[in-house]
Each structure stands twice: as C-alpha cells, then as structure tokens.
Amino acid sequence: MPETAPSDWRRFTGANLSQRALKAAAARKTEIRHAIRVSAAVGAAYALATLLRLPQGFWAVFTAVIVVQASLGATITASIERFLGTVVGALAGAVAAYFHSRWPQFGGLILCVTVALSAFVAALRPSLKAAPVTAVIMLIGTTTHMDPLIAASLRVVEITVGSLVGVAATLLIFPARAHASVVASVQKIAGLQADILESHVLALRGTPGPIDNLKAQDDLRAALAKLQAAMTEAGRESATRLSDRSVSDALPRTLWRLRNDTVMVGRTLRAPLPGALAPAAGDMLEASARFLRASAAFLGGGPRPDRIAFATAHQVFQTCFESLRGKGVTRDLEFDDAARVFGLAFAIENLFSNLGDFEERIEEVVEKKD
C-alpha cells in the first residue's frame, strides 16, 4: 500500500467529520443564533455596567440573559415585564428598608409582610413576577447599607441597562421577528389538521391510519396556544413600530373553528356510514386536506390553492347527500345513525365554509407582504 494512504485516509475522514459537523450545525441554526445573541448581550451589558460603574452591575448581566428570547417580540415582552416588576419590587423594598431601619427588631416580620404584598400583586398581574424577588434582594441583599431610595434607583438603572442591551442584541444580531414564528405556527397547525382529516379519510375507506386522534388533538391544541403567544409577541413588535404585523387576529380564530370541525367530523365516524355517503365524504375530506395544505403553502410563497377542485368535491358531496335523501335512505335510519349522518353533513358544511375563510385570511397576509 502506498505510504500516502494514511494521510489520505485522515484527510478524507476529516472532511467527512467536517461535513457532518456542518450538517449538525445547520440543523441547529436557530439555537446557535440565539446562543450568539445571548453571549453578545451579556458581553455588552457587562461592558456598559463597568463603564457606568454600577455597584451591582451583575444585575444588568442577569437581566440580559433573562430577557433575550428567540424573537424580538418575546424579548420586548420579557424586558417590559422585567422592568415593571423591578420598579414595583424596588419601591416595595425601599419602603420596607425604611421601616427596617426604624425598627430593626421587626426585620423578619417586615420581610414577610413585604413579600406577601408583592407576591399578591404578582398573582394579580403575572407580568410583575419579578417584584417579590427584587423586594427581597432590596431587604437582605448587599444594598442594605445604602439609602433605600438610592438602592432602588440603582436597581432600576441596572435592570434598564440589561433590558435595553437585550432588545438591541435581538434587534441587531440575527434579527428574528415574531411574524416568522406566527407563519411557522400557522403552517404547522394546518399540517396537523390536514393529518387528522386524512386519518378520517382512511377510516372511511376501511383502512384506519396510524394517527392517534386523541394525541393529535392534544398536539393541535398545544400548537394553537403557541400561535396565540406568537401573535401576542408580534403585536408587541407592531406596537413598538419595530415591525409590521401582517397576520390579523381573525386567522387564529379561523384555525380554532377548523379544529372544532375536525372534532365534529371524527365524532360522526364512530360507525360505518350508510350507502354511498362514505366514499363521497372521504373524497370531500381528502379535498379539504389538500386545500388546507395548499393554503398553508401559499402563505410560505407556494402556488395559490385550487378553489375550483375544492368546490367541485364539495358539490359532489352535496349531490350525493341530496340523492340519499331523495331515495328516502335517511328516513329509514335509527335515531343515532340519522344524527351521525346529518351531523357529518353539518360538520362538512362548516369545514367548507371555514376553509374558504382560512384561504381568504392567508390571501390577506400575502397581499400585505407584497
């Protein structure tokens, strides 16, 4: 074997390892960017606190770590909550420190009362959850040797420095807008709902799919809750004029209605459907799943969904249902079976209407982007 073989082997092995490392890094691109943002914010907060000679500059660093989030809207929300909680806690701590200086023998009682009051306020307003922590630090921390008002003012300054640095880092370093998170959530929800509809199609055709409908509905509810949080963050961004939120509040409501439609459809399929209704219902649900996926893809820059094909499938289902009624099939059904048949027709009508509304909301978003 040539003497150069070992070096060639090491070179190729190193190249393969590098490629795998690059692929792994690409798969964790979002996490790596967030780590860089947090690191930069910590460094900037430390430098600024040192430059301003803040006596407890580490609180600016802690705040930078806490407030930097995955999106600008989330960072702004965390910064505002941190700032307001600190102000309330610092004021409560300053008052408590004053009473402690007058009656030091009641220090424990003053501490407990202050924490109880600030915790009560935080329970009423969860955005002030930092208040009890700040109040305690004001009382038993290293600032007890200072004048209470000076200590409170310094704490607010330190938190403000960390918050501003955190917002700046999120805005300038790999900026991530909450709108992108909203779009990703909408597409994920649409995909989950399409999966559920396709599972119903398989059930109608006698080959139940591998999807656990209960788990799928749980995942769907969690995704809808995540979308609502992203919408709140996007609204915060829009309010601060740092970005333009192009997704209206009507879109999450439409997705919730679609979720209810999938639940209603599933409840009607617990037993076989009569006559030719099952094939027609399966074709309609399959067309609905395709239209749902196409609408979500349109939001991401894909082609416009085919409204004609979707409307045609709906018309075929209506014709089949009217044919069954005309032949008197529905009159001969037992009460439970009749309830399921008419319930399915009602659910599919709602599904058709809500999918049309969903596509219109998507079109509004795309038009605003253009």
Care to describe what's here?
This protein has 2 domains: 32-172, no CATH class; 178-369, Methane Monooxygenase Hydroxylase, Chain G, domain 1 (Up-down Bundle), CATH 1.20.58. The protein is 79% helix and 0% strand. It has 13 helices and no strands. Helix 2 packs antiparallel against helix 7 (148-172). It is elongated.
What labels would you give this structure?
370 residues; mainly alpha; Methane Monooxygenase Hydroxylase, Chain G, domain 1; 13 helices; 0% strand
What is the CATH C-level name of the largest domain?
A: Mainly Alpha
Number of domain units = 2
Give the class from helix and strand content and strand pairing.
mainly alpha
CATH topology of the largest domain: Methane Monooxygenase Hydroxylase, Chain G, domain 1
CATH architecture of the largest domain: Up-down Bundle
Proportion of residues in β-strands: under 5%
- The number of helical elements comes to 13
Q: How do the SSEs run, as a string of H and E?
A: HHHHHHHHHHHHH
